[in-house]
Amino acid sequence: MAYPASQEGSSEQPDSKMIATSLGPDHQKEEWTIRHTRAIIGSFCGLFASFGWYSSTGLFQDYYQRNQLRDYSPSTISWISSMGFFLVYSGTCFFGPLSARFGATPVVVVGSMLQVGGLLGTAFSSKLYQFLVLQGFLSALGASAVFFATIQIFGQWFRRRQALLVGISASGTSVGGVVFPLMIQSLLPKVDFRWTMIYVVFVILFLLLVAIFCVRAPSTAPPAPQPPDNNGQSWLTVFKDYNLLLAIAGIAFLSGTFTLVVTFVVAVARLRGWNDQVNAIVCLNAASFLGRIIPGVIAEYIGRLNTMAIFSFLSTVLILGLWLPSSGVPASIAFSVTWGFASASVVSLGPAILFQLSRPQDGVRNLALLYCVQSIAALTASPTGGALLSIEDDGNPRYLQLLAGLLSAVGTILIVLVRWLRSGAVLWEAL
């Protein structure tokens, strides 16, 4: 594993004994234990309940446009999902230090209370401001705590096969993105919106209880001593590592693309004649299940940066070459499946790349910084896309699709640049 330079222009690497000491006794053991398995199960359930729920926001964008909030424009309604994604990511700036200080479990407990309370309030909402406060703010803040706490433990428990194991746990987001829309589709014709949300909350509560029981930080040893000019706790040292900054920017652009497409894929599919809005989001999330795991397997052989570059390039091609020029239901189905698979790598490989570029003691801090930057992309992408969708009277989505393609292309270029800076033109080196 490679670690970033501690100072600008320096290639000095952390001492191997220092790395081993900072990992703690549980982590230094190579054998697999029940605690490792429990960490993966807890992370899977936590991501299922938190980010998996927000992977279904495209369904709510379309539902609110046709029901409770039909008097508002798509751009205005999209603030519910964009604020939610913004807080899911930006909340890590707050929950990251708390998790580092108090451990993952208390953060998951607090997050579970906020998410469940916010969604219960959403069940009784009918006004725009109520959806913004309860679904877009309160429940999203809780999901942020659960999301970050269940992702960051991988930097503490695992060093080998990180990309694969993060991908397995991150597949919980895809399962949530399939289960929740199908559940809502089944319940809405039988009960009203209020009881549908209440039933959903019960499922989320069960998953969060499993996460609370399973998510534990490993036993840690005292932190290794750091040289005075290489203090890993200082946030300012991040800005001396250009590889890390470029990687964060690239992943943020790809995440903005992910947020934009997930939010509007249902609305665009409806414009193309695909009236079964639930299956549109289900196809995307079902394909992303394999897209979380398979890139992790490939990354074990060719490297995380190489894998991310390949899949992000493929995502860009699918947006500009399939989604933009196509029309009709078959093309919408093909895009949902293929792009859902190709784009999913940003959720699983993004954290794995950050762990690869970070020293062990800096992993939580750098991951929090990544999600803070991603929150800006999440906040701005969906409202901008909604405004672009409203430009033409017939609702032609081409400007929205061009924006998605541009964001994806920029993210791909930045990831390729990081890979080139680390090894030059040596294409066969696994990075």
Question: Which structural traits does this protein have?
Answer:
431 residues; mainly alpha; Growth Hormone, Chain: A; disordered N terminus
Protein model, in words:
The chain has 431 residues and is mostly helical. The protein has two domains: 34-218, Growth Hormone, Chain: A; 236-430, Growth Hormone, Chain: A. Helices cover 75% and strands 0% of the residues. It is globular and about 50 Å long. Residues 1-30 and 221-233 have low confidence and may be disordered. One of its GO terms (cellular component) is membrane. Residues 1-22 are annotated as: Disordered. Belongs to the major facilitator superfamily. Monocarboxylate porter (TC 2.A.1.13) family. This is Putative transporter MCH4.
How is the biggest beta sheet arranged? none
Q: What CATH first level of the largest domain would be assigned? A: Mainly Alpha
Provide the low-confidence segments as ranges. 1-30, 221-233
CATH superfamily of the largest domain: MFS general substrate transporter like domains
Subcellular location: Membrane
Protein name: Putative transporter MCH4
InterPro entries: MFS, MFS_dom, MFS_trans_sf, Proton-linked_MCT
Main location: membrane
